[in-house]
Structure formats: structure tokens, C-alpha cells
Amino acid sequence: MTEILTPKLVSVIAEGYAPARLKADMLSGLTVAIVALPLSMAIAIASGVTPDRGLYTAIVGGFLVSALGGSRFQVGGPAGAFIVLVAATVSRHGVEGLLLATLLSGVMLALAGYLRLGKYIKLIPYPVTVGFTAGIAVIIFASQIGELFGLRLEGGEPGPILEKLAALWEARPTFNPAALGVAGLTVAVILLLRRFRPAWPNLLIGVAAASLATALLALPADTIGSRFGGIPRGLPVPSLPSFSPELVLAVLPDAVAFTLLGAIESLLSAVVADGMTGRRHRSSMELIAQGAANIGSALFGGICVTGTIARTATNVRSGATSPISGMLHSAFLLAFMLIAAPLASYIPLAALAGVLAVVSFNMVERPAIAALVRSSRGDAVILAVTFLLVVFRDLTEGIVVGFLIGAVLFIDRMGKAVNIREENVPRAVRAIEDASEDSGLPERPLVADDPDTVIYRISGVFFFGAAASVGAVLDRIADQRRNFVLDCSEVPFLDSTAASIVEGLARKAERSGVRIFIAGLRPDMRRLLEAHDIHAPRVTFAATTEEAMAAIAAA
Fold first, then answer.
1. Which residues are registered as beta bridge partners of 494?
2. What is the DSSP code (8-state) at residue 240?
3. Which residues span the domain enclosing 179?
4. Directed axis angle between helix 202-216 and helix 349-363, to 10°?
5. Rg (Cα) of the chain, in Å, rounded?
């Protein structure tokens, strides 16, 4: 328990932290900070808040995720997956409501970690994660269309995607070619650098090139300075968000949604890091760290924090060796704010929209979608339903419904995997005869000649999903023989529904004068059956089928 709730930073320090590792972590931390700088501001703006709040999130939340987390390589900050939820919360409850929801989410995440619930959160089916990620990508891109084309919408941009697209179409007369040119330049630079200079910080260079072009050519495109007045040089004084019982109840559903998505996103990111490095993260400690990071972010005016796959993967590829890399990434971001905050005023909003357009395109896991569609009709249904609900209804609803469909399909598949078959009685009894000859015991009469003895073997998990099919077979054959042997040696687990089926079989056999033998049960399964009043003389338990057949032969 102690190790599970120990931050990886403690383990790294205990191993011995050499200067060479610090140098590697400094380089990787700087690389991630360069990636995170424009991305954090872009995500904040798309979420309906000012760009400085995205930087507060990356600095404070990112530092706590790395310092307290259960992964050596996890990097935290604002995530594109939260844009939809954060924007909706801001529109309903304002920034103060968002900060309170983030704080409550942090408390919930920390509690989930202390209760070690991380192992259950990771049970979300893969088609659900692929579907909701693709759905979020579509919503993020749709939210940036206005900035990409420089459209001006009277009365703000609607939330639902169909209404949003209709409003954008109505605003087409306000199209600004300069904004589209700036966004196109940003995307082109990012893609070209990714293709020919993959080691270069393509996001930052793309935004810098667009900003330089906008300033030199005096293009009529909105910038951070013209829209928000720039960003401050440093962090604000921490303070508690506005609090009242009414506001807590109002933002509680948003906090629950933040908690669910944050847990899924962060643990998925940690799993990706494990796959890239061969390490294993501590999921419970990771959730505690995410909780502390969200609480810290809310106190400093930031938005939701989670472990991010893109920044974590960049951290690993850049040669990080420990959580200190993620902590240094936050320190570098703070240094950028202190030194270069005035330059952020020149960044065009269309350039940041171009960054998010690239991010949303990369979020769609096209090979995974193709594989799921090809592999199984059920997985394709889960994927499609999750995607459509996320895009057209609600993110949380998409995850919950996708999970439920996945659970039902899994139950159906497991139920079909259970097999019940009749065993060859002569062969089973011949084994008894041979065993008695080898042991020097007198031969017993062969029960193989007795048509009143039958053996049925169940293989697979005997649970409520298979109870109907197995129960139908047992009910059909139980009253046809005088001796009935039920071999459960290949049953790894049975539940109360299965025990109820066996209890009904025993009750019917008792009325018909049929002797029931149950062989091969594990001790825990036998205790479950006994709790359902299945014991001698109603049934006879045997360690093996051979032992049951010997008891029949001796009778």
C-alpha cells in the first residue's frame, strides 16, 4: 500500500539522481515547454477563457502532476479533450463556476486515488476511448472554424454543433481572407517542419512565423493583444474561488464530468508512456497527483489539468529520465511568461486556431478506427455510437452509453463462450478400473454398462450471462438418469445466478430420486454453493470426476 501511494519522484531520488540525468531532463523539459507554450494558450482561448489561464494551468498544474505523480514521464496541463466541457461550464456558470468545478474535481480525483479506483477507470473499452477522442476532435475543429475564417458572429457562438454550423454559415459575409491566410501559413509551416525537420518545435515556429507575417504586413487579423490585451508577466496570488451551496450544487455535474474525463485521459497517457519506456506507473498515485494539480490550478485561476499524451510522448522522445523533466517544463513556461509576455500580444488568434486544427486532426486515431471497423461489428457499433453521442449530444453521455453497450456485448460474448457437453462415461470409468489395478485394489464393476449415469462438463465462466443456456441443458437431462455428475473443474468462476441454477437442479433431482455429484469445484465456489443450501445429502462433492465415479461404483 505504501509503495502504491508513493510518488515516482521519491523513487527516483532514492535511486540516486546524477548530474547527467539532470542535463537530460533540462533539455527534455525545455522541449516540452516550447510545445506547451502556444498549445496552452490556444486551448484556453478555445475553452472560452483568457490565454493566461492556460499558462497558469500548465505551470501550476503541470508542476504538481510531475512532482506528485505515479509516472516518471507524465506531463500535465490543459488538454484539448476538455475544451468542450470547459466551454460549456463557462457559458453556464461563468469563470468562477469553472474554478469551483475544477477545485471539486481535484478533490474527487484525489479521493479516487486514495480509494485505489484507478484500476476500475482503466476498464473503459478501447472502442469507447477511440470514439470519444474522435468526437472531441470534430468538436474542437468545429469550434475553430470561426477563427480560421475570421468570421464574426453576433451574440456569440452556439454550443451545439448543428446550431454552431448554421450560425457560421449565416456569418459567411464577414469572412476575412487575412485570417484564413494566417491560419493556412501556420498549418503549412507546422506540417512542413514535421515532414522535413521533425526535431524542430514546429508548433512554436509556425505561430512565430504567422505572428511575424501579420506584424510586417499589417494584416487585419485579431491578435491576443487586440482581443485580450496581452498576458500578465507572472502568476496571480492564489485565492479560493467563489463558494456557496447553490453554486456547488449547480457545478457538481460539471465537476463529475471533469473527474471522469481527467481520470481516463491521464491514465491513458500514463499507459502510453509505459508502452514507450517499459516502465509501470502507479495509477492510484497518478490520480492523487491529478487531484492536487486541479486544486492548485483552481487556486491560481487555471482550468482543468490532466496528463496529456502529446506532451508526455514528446517528453519521452526528448530523453527525459524522471519527473523532474515535467517540473522543469513548468519552470521554463514561467520563465517565458516573465521574460516574453509582451510578445504574446502579437500572436494572431487565427494562428492558434491553426494549431488546434492540426491538433484535432492528430487526435483522430485513423488506424485504430479502421482496425475496429474491420475486426468486429460490435466494436464498430460501440465506436459509432460513442462518436455520434459525443458530437451531437454530450461527452459524458457518449462515454457512459458506449461503456454500457460494450459491457452488454462483453457479457453476450462471455455467455456464448461457456460450453456444456456430455463426457464419455465408459472412458471415465475405465480410468477408475485402471487406477484400481495399478494400486492393487480389487476391481470394481464397470458403471459404463449402467445407462443411468451421465457426466456433464462445464467449461468457462458460469455466470448470469450464461445461466439461461446452461440451465436449459441441465434441466433437460437431470431427470433422465439416476446418477448425474456435474464436472466443474474447468469453471474458473461462478456467481450467485449460477448457484441458483444449480440449487434448482438439486431441488428437482431430490424430488426425482436422482443422485447429484459435483466435481472439481474450487473451495470459494463450493462455499458459494453451500450458502445457497447446496450441500449433502442433496448433492455430493468430489475432488475429481474419477472420485465421483468411484463413489457411484461403490454404491
1. 462
2. P
3. 14-410
4. 150
5. 31
Answer whether residue 6 is part of any domain. no
Query: Block means of pLDDT (10 residues each) for the chain, length 555 residues?
Result: 76 89 92 88 91 95 95 91 88 94 96 86 81 85 90 77 89 93 95 90 90 93 88 91 90 93 86 83 92 96 90 86 95 92 90 89 88 90 93 83 90 84 56 44 42 83 83 67 85 89 85 86 90 85 87 78
3-state SS class at 159: coil
∠ CA 66-42-45, rounded to 5°: 110
Alpha carbon distance 215, 220 (integer Å) = 10
In a domain, 255, yes or no: yes
Same domain assignment for residues 426 and 394: no
Terminal CA-CA length for the chain: 53
Whether the upstream peptide bond of residue 38 has omega within 30° of 0, thus cis, is: no
Closest among 173, 207, 178, 214 to 193, alpha carbons compared: 207
Q: With contact defined as beta carbons under 8 Å apart, do 314 and 326 qualify?
A: no
Same domain, 34 and 127: yes
pTM above threshold 0.85: no
Domain with residue 432: its CATH number is 3.30.750.24
* Alpha carbon distance 188, 464 (integer Å): 56
- Tell me how far apart the alpha carbons of residues 448 and 434 are, in angstroms, rounded to a whole number: 14
Q: Residue 466, Cβ neighbours under 10 Å: how many?
A: 26
Q: How far apart are CA 327 and CA 75, in angstroms?
A: 8
The verdict on 151 and 26 lying in the same domain is yes
Classify strands 419-422 and 306-307 as parallel, antiparallel or unpaired: unpaired
Residue type, 226: S
**Do 454 and 340 share a structural domain?**
no
Separation between Cα atoms, residue 391 and residue 431, nearest integer Å: 63
For 201, 341, 391, 398, the CA distances from 206, given in Å and listed in that order, are: 9, 18, 29, 34
Q: List all residues 6 or more positions away from 96 whose beta carbon is below 8 Å from its beta carbon.
A: 241, 242, 247
